[in-house]
Design goal:
By secondary structure, this protein is mainly alpha-helical. Helix content is 71%, strand content 0%. The protein has one domain. The protein is built from two helices and no strands.
């Protein structure tokens, strides 16, 4: 840790928040994708 290094600076707090938000959204997207795959095929897939 440097003398002027503050880990909990406003910038880093914001960045960590964004990172967590993105991870949350990614996990939710994965779960949604998986649930869709198990239920019925999408309209796009049925046409092909």
């Amino acid at each position: 840790m440097g003398r002027f290094d503050s880990r909990n600076s406003e910038k880093m707090t914001r960045r960590r928040g964004q990172q967590k938000k993105k991870e949350r959204l990614a996990r939710r997207a994965e779960a949604a994708k998986a649930s869709r795959k198990t239920t019925k095929p999408s309209k796009k897939a049925s046409k092909a």
